[in-house]
């Protein structure tokens, strides 16, 4: 029997089986026509192999069953792009950003993010992952990695910058149905802007000869923030087990496409490639698998974004219905059949409302709890007491906090466990009156403290539905925590509630001096006092900063003899 006939008979049998299950009547002729259409659409006519559809509800016949009687679904290449894709492409290429608040906020985010990256370089767990793939490689006109002597290709540079930015969980934050850190996208944006500018200054013609200024980078950040943030407002990726860095990859891909000079169709193609790319599982952020990948996952997303955009630049096509394709699309495979929901059109809302991590290098859902703990530490000291006198602590909190960082009895195996445990962070503050990045490292005073460990197990979280509602309210977006302490002698201290952390928009002006101090503090281990003052002053001069060529600005951060990079 020929391969074609065998395939035809197998497909015909499959159609009959599916139709019997569905109680559908059909003539033999119609069944054979359906089978033949399936055969024609098969990816391998020579073998005519069809997917096994006998188990569960997962069936390659789903698209036929959902179609109107007698109508054969069109192949993907005959369809238009998913509207979710074209909306992003249209926004990135055609939307003019005219919000001065967004640009001002972006400037603060830019400085803060670069500072966080420099601070990440102080940790060998981070720096061991950085640098060229082949030691000693220097890429002519390649982007430079701030704080290091490295000059790399744009893909690897995107990873390097993205990883160091995110390493300490200290850059900005966006909290909604999904969480994330939109300034992670700077890894891709800065690497590509620097590379294109250096190349074109050297006589190249990337992106039609474009030479980027810092203001161009700020605009790219605003748009990347908006894409990531709007996709997160009503859509929870963590509830289906996916990590939020998928949104970094999508946002960076879109913005980098524009930077490379791709047209609207090519930009859409690149965005589809980001969605079809394998997505990271959140398991590395949760027990029992919490580990350091959570600190370089954003860098990985940045490098994938640049890599995909460059492939489309070379002519690689897209996947038009990557989201909506029955059976094989993102919605059916990874999102339980649900389509994305949107609260608002793309603009500059996310950058204008983004959250800064100002006071503590702590997962953002804990920021207000740590601030409350600092107040309680001072109160105990004034009473002549200490954390050793605490019998129990109750944290009244919001649902997201409980889901992500409530780890009362989970062993603290590494720094990744500690910086995502609200009990550990509050305990350190209650015991020592501080919380620094060094308090998460193995062997540190905090990590080896018996008092911190015993107190951690006395801290329990309970959800307050109103706190959860306020967390999702577009007019508030607060991250409230309230701590009640019971002492060993039976005394209850008044509850200390903090609703909006210092980096919240409601406290933005109050936060700015602290953001600047944080930036300066992160510069100081890397550069001379004169260089630090120059960078701080430049950061406070928006007109001069925004007009500066991006390569010249990045050159200010080069450190040929960094003591932190081997």
From TrEMBL:
Sequence similarity: Belongs to the PrpD family.
GO cellular component: mitochondrion
GO molecular function: 2 iron, 2 sulfur cluster binding; 2-methylcitrate dehydratase activity
Name of this chain's protein: MmgE/PrpD family-domain-containing protein
Annotated MmgE/PrpD C-terminal domain residues: 360-534
MmgE/PrpD N-terminal domain ranges (all copies): 87-343
Protein origin, superkingdom: Eukaryota
A Pfam entry, by short name: MmgE_PrpD_C
Biological-process GO terms, alphabetical: propionate metabolic process, methylcitrate cycle
InterPro entries: 2Me_IsoCit_deHydtase_PrpD, MmgE/PrpD_sf, MmgE/PrpD_sf_1, MmgE/PrpD_sf_2, MmgE_PrpD, MmgE_PrpD_C, MmgE_PrpD_N
Record's keyword annotation contains GTP-binding: no
Natural source organism: Pseudoneurospora amorphoporcata
Subunit annotation: Monomer.
Keywords: Lyase
